[in-house]
Amino acid sequence: CAHHKATPRTISMRYSIIALILTILTTSCSSDASMDFLAMQYQYIAPDEVINPASEYLIVIGDIQEYTQTFENLDYLIYSLDWIRNQNNNYNNIKCVLQDGDVTNSNAPWQWEMAREAFHHLKDSVMYVWSTGNHDYQWVGETGTQISDRTSTLLNSYLSNSLLDKNIISRFETDRYDNIILRSSLTARHINIISLEFGPRPEVLTWAAKYVRSHTNEKFILMTHEYMTDEGERMKSGKTFAYLQFVDIPHTEPDEIWEQLVKPNDNILCVVNGHNGFCKYLETENDAGRMVPQILFNLQYQVNGGDSMLQLWEFPMNENKVNISVYNTLSGEYKDYEQTSYSFTY
Questions:
Q1: In the chain, how long is the greatest CA-to-CA distance?
Q2: What is residue 167's three-state secondary structure?
Q3: Residues pairing with 327 in the sheet
Q4: Residues 6+ positions from 90 with CB-CB distance below 8 Å
Q5: CB neighbours of 35 closer than 8 A, spacing ≥ 6?
Q6: What is the per-residue pLDDT for 14?
Q7: All residues at 6 or more sequence positions from 192 whose CB lies less than 8 Å from its CB, including other chains
Q8: What gap in Å lies between CA 211 and CA 208, rounded to an integer?
Q9: Per-residue pLDDT tens for 83-116?
């Protein structure tokens, strides 16, 4: 199936102009200056045969910090979001987009603006949610990498969208998006999404675990930023960025997330995370004897900030199965790389 592709020349031309406009905005306007010029560049992309009309989909987009801090890379994110919008317009079976943290590289307002206006390309056709990564907070201190204030993230000023707000079923804090539970809209599957902050506070894990235990007839996909190493192992306590960066701020680490939230609750289907490496899968047995998939997907180290790649989660109709693959929406090819394809049942 043919695609309408953006060429390197058009990308370069478009972002020379965008770089100029952004320079003007960031030097002469306030931090809440509008960048609606991005949202006007909607691209038509033909139906892609990679989408199975008889299935439903979730899509995961790994860390996008290299997209949102680099003008020449942003178009690769925009193209992938245009692809999602067009495929959903064609097939009406993409139910949610999950972004697993590091929306920005330095929590700068202009980077959040870039992310927000890029995701506006979904045009309220597909629900999306972002989680906070360590780069989505203000860094301070002697090393310049310490996080002393969780409220410093600007995520809550930029994430709100109508489909997300409509589908939130629980929040840890009123009017905030750091820690939420939402419906995925997968037909009759009763699968919800738990999105947790970077290095969740102990009370956040308690809140999430209580909700999961009280809704045993529902299933959950847990998303948080830091969880697995680039070798595909769960990160050990004292070896994480949360441990290094939070200063006198309560937090938990991946082993605690596993022991307190995932391992005891068999209705948590899997864990989605980013932060390290590229794409890895880990299976660990929970208290019910089921092997729980833990899935890492991170774009930041890839060419062009991510090269318009997505992780497709296919849910075939009438099957309790998920097929996961990494797809380059720009080239129309699956990523040929270790551990980019994976399936599990639930």
A1: 59
A2: helix
A3: 310, 334
A4: 47, 51
A5: 21, 22, 25, 113, 114, 117
A6: 53
A7: 169, 181, 182, 183, 184, 215, 218, 219, 220, 221
A8: 5
A9: 999 999 999 999 999 999 999 999 999 999 999 9
What CA–CA distance (Å, rounded) separates 82 from 84?
Answer: 5
What tokens were used for 147?
A: 């996080």
Question: Position of tokens 């890895």?
Answer: 280
**What are the C-alpha distances in Å from 211 to residues 90, 102, 127, 180, 194?**
36, 26, 22, 11, 10
**What is the model's pTM?**
0.89
198 sits in which H/E element: none
Neighbours of 18 (CB within 10 A): 19
What's the rounded Cα separation, in Å, for the pair 187 and 344?
Answer: 18
Instruction: Give me the residue label for tokens 């075939």.
Output: 316
Smallest CA-to-CA distance from 115 within 125, 128, 126 is with 128
CA 216 vs CA 37, 187, 205: distances in Å? 46, 18, 17
63-83 confidence digits (pLDDT tens): 999 999 988 899 999 999 999
Place of tokens 């235990």: 213
- Rounded Cα–Cα distance for residues 290 and 274 (Å): 23
Q: Which residue has the tokens 């097939």?
A: 91
DSSP designation for 247: S
Directed axis angle between helix 109-119 and helix 8-28, to 10°? Answer: 130
